[in-house]
Amino acid sequence: MTTDANVRRRGRGWVMAPLLIFIALAGLFAFGLTGDPSKLPSALIGRPVPQTNFPPLEGLTDNGQPVPGFHAADLAKGKVSVVNFWASWCGPCIEEHPLLITLRERSGVDIYGVNYKDQAEAGRRFIGRFGNPFTAIGTDQTGRSAIEWGVYGMPETFVINGRGEIAYKHVGPISQSSLESKLLPEIEKARTARP
After folding, report:
1. Are 139 and 77 in contact (CB under 8 A)?
2. Same-domain check for residues 76 and 21
């Protein structure tokens, strides 16, 4: 025999369930918004770079010569290199750009840029305004290659060892702090790693 008290308790449970689910989801979203994106795991660390081809940024020249695009094989020529995904419409890309120039000067590595889902004119204007730290600049018009590389958003930077394997992934814009404490040490680590 059910009593009125039992019916009320069961009814209260159904009212509380959506509230508890809402609180749990809100907590997950809050953690996602405040968590450190650079701590996102990458399943590609230690694996060869995805077999992707990045065609050149149309119309971009340097000293009258076209700036080339690149493909995965260019990253496996025995030298440590860096790949940076960027876009002209990306505010954090503007912030980190001077640090890419510093990274190239201090480390001596080749930096390969990937202009992500951008118009060629906007990409050329960006490089013209902020400078070109890149050895080659390829494009990813559809975003498919970025998916293969496991890119979460712009900008992202990868350290590639001389065998063409991803040694380190930096999510988000490079800061002076991350340049000193993460990228430069990871480049050195990739240089001294045994084959």
Report:
1. no
2. no
